[in-house]
Design goal:
DUF1192; DUF1192 domain-containing protein
Length: 60
C-alpha cells in the first residue's frame, strides 16, 4: 500500500462521527461504502490479471 492509499483509507473512516449520524444516514453510509468496496474489488481483479499476464510473459 502506498502512502496515498493509506491516507485515503484512513480518511474514509476517521472523519466520520457515527454518534451524530441518524439511522438513515448510517444506512446511506453503508451503501456508499459497499459501492466503494465493489470498486476496489474490481481494481484488485484487474491488477491480478495484469500481474498474471506479466508473470506468464517473463516465465517464457
Amino acid at each position: 500500500m502506498t502512502s496515498n492509499d493509506e491516507e485515503s483509507s484512513q480518511s474514509l473512516s476517521s472523519n466520520v462521527n457515527f454518534d451524530t449520524m441518524s439511522i438513515d444516514d448510517l444506512h446511506e453510509y453503508i451503501a456508499d461504502m459497499t459501492t466503494e468496496i465493489e470498486k476496489v474489488k474490481l481494481i484488485i481483479k484487474k491488477k491480478l490479471a495484469a500481474q498474471d499476464t506479466a508473470d506468464s510473459f517473463f516465465k517464457k
